Amino acid sequence: MDWNPSMLFNPLPNPNRDRSAQPAAAKLFLNWQLSKERQTGDGWSVRTDVAPPTGLKRVWQYRDADIDGFPAFMRNRAEAERTRQQMTVYIGEVEGAPTPGRLGTHPGTAKP
Predict the structure, then answer these.
(1) Cα-to-chain-centroid distance, residue 74
(2) CA–CA separation, 41 vs 24, rounded Å?
(3) In the chain, where are the structural domains located?
(4) 22 phi/psi in degrees, rounded to 5
(5) CB under 8 Å to 36, separation ≥6 — which residues?
(6) Where is this region: Disordered (predicted)?
(7) Cα gap 38→31, rounded to integer Å
(8) Cα(20)–Cα(84) distance, integer angstroms
């Protein structure tokens, strides 16, 4: 897999909204993030009424942005490691404390 800009897109919702000390502020921030004004600013929009950046396809039209194909990608350890190394070149080594061990919405469940 060659690197493409869709790898920087995170389609997952923000889990911090429900744990925020200021839920109203978190909701306001997310509403702003999803507003048409903000979504036309840069990068890909999650909105269907906002065109992708000039010269690029919609994010879901990139082969490597397939959420359902992600588990299969991760099973190919050589490919996953090569991608990790490419991302390290672009954004640097991972820094900071390890994650607190939260395994996500469906831990231990993989799509076939």
Answers:
(1) 15
(2) 24
(3) 20-50, 62-94
(4) -125, 75
(5) 47, 49, 50
(6) 1-22, 93-112
(7) 10
(8) 31
CA distances, 42 to each of 5, 67, 90 (Å): 12, 22, 19
Say how many residues make up the chain. Answer: 112
Q: pLDDT tens digits, residue range 5-52?
A: 444 444 445 555 566 788 888 888 888 888 888 888 777 787 889 888
Contact 8, 44 (CB under 8 A): no
Rounded to the nearest integer, the mean pLDDT of the chain is 75
Taking a C-beta distance cutoff of 8 angstroms, is the pair 7, 15 a contact?
A: no
Query: What's the chain's Rg over C-alpha atoms?
Result: 16
